[in-house]
Structure prediction request, 248 residues.
Amino acid sequence: MTLVSRATLVLLFITTAACAPTAQRSAQTAPVAERAALPEAIRWVRASAEHRALFLQVFGAASERVRELAAGRQRGTWAVILDADETILDNSEYQRRRAAQGLGFTPDTWDAWVREEKATALPGAAAFLSLVRELGGRIAIVTNRDDVVCAETRRNMESLQLVSDVVLCRVNGVSDKNPRFEAVQSGTAASGLGPADVVVWVGDNIQDFPELTQEVRGRPAEALSAFGRTYFMLPNPMYGSWEGLPVP
Prediction:
């Protein structure tokens, strides 16, 4: 190798070494800064393998239980009830946007997000709903999205192949879901739907289950004995009725 060739190679190596890290740094700076600004709960939901694994685990267990409970039942006589947000619909993009701006939830920005119809399906949700339909069950979605955005909610679900028989949104700001649970059971939830025996509930908040609130935490373990049998809880560390509770 000539002296000129060696000099050329040295110059090329120096130039490459100087430029590559700079390009790498510029490509990584924005994502790293954004990751640092996001709360850990949002990062966990959007990035972790554990989040996906837990959803598949819970929906898998709920599927096995539905198979057991549906055996011998006549089609259309039984149902499952699920929450929507952070149960079958993933709204972590809304949470990410707000956190990136240093802002929190507001009703107006939430409704604007719902109207985008950009929530995505959570792992295992579509397969679970399809199984319920296949086995002859009805699907009721009981959500505290306001009734003014219920049409958008239905369209968003349909675009994701999240099938349902009825979507019951919050009316007049009444967050208590128990009357809507009872409507599904009694057959008054929607025209054409008769009474149904609800065999399984799925949600991400304790209030997604009949007559339960955060105060159940202080009760004996028997008060939570339905979980894993007819109640199935999904993880949501981003928000919930637990916010603002005193920490022991």
In short: The chain has a mean pLDDT of 90.
